[in-house]
Amino acid sequence: ENCRVIIDRKSWQPHPIFAWLRSHADIEQQEMFNVFNMGLGFVLVVDSQAADLVQAHLAQENLTHWVIGTVNAGERAVEIVG
């Protein structure tokens, strides 16, 4: 409650299959996110003070990762920018 999630669409590159699907199926971008998560299979939400440590652990395990957004105080919502 009372949290607004801001996702930066430019922070990762979705697999090209999503652009192909959208162009052939006339699907709105928001619906692509709702149904397919645009290639993000797993998301960790961590305290901003722990983000660098978490990223270091993921890199040590050779796991591809991105910081895709923030969680802020505010009206409950998810906003996709970029």
Ordered list of secondary-structure elements with their pairings:
Elements: E1 3-8, H1 16-25, H2 29-36, H3 51-60, E2 69-73, E3 77-81
Parallel strand pairs: 1-3
Antiparallel strand pairs: 1-2
Summarize the structure.
The protein has helices at 16-25, 29-36, 51-60; strands at residues 3-8, 69-73, 77-81. It is α+β, with helices and mostly antiparallel strands and 82 residues long. 1% of the residues are buried.
Report on the architecture of this protein:
The protein is of the alpha+beta class and 82 residues long. The chain is 34% helix and 20% strand. It has a 3-stranded mixed sheet with strand order 2-1-3, with no helix packed on it. The longest helix has 10 residues, at 16-25.
What's the overall average pLDDT, rounded? 90
Which overall shape is indicated by the principal axes computed on the Cα atoms? Answer: flat
Stretches where pLDDT is under 50 for at least 5 consecutive residues are none
Oligomer: single chain
Estimated share of beta-strand residues: 15-25%
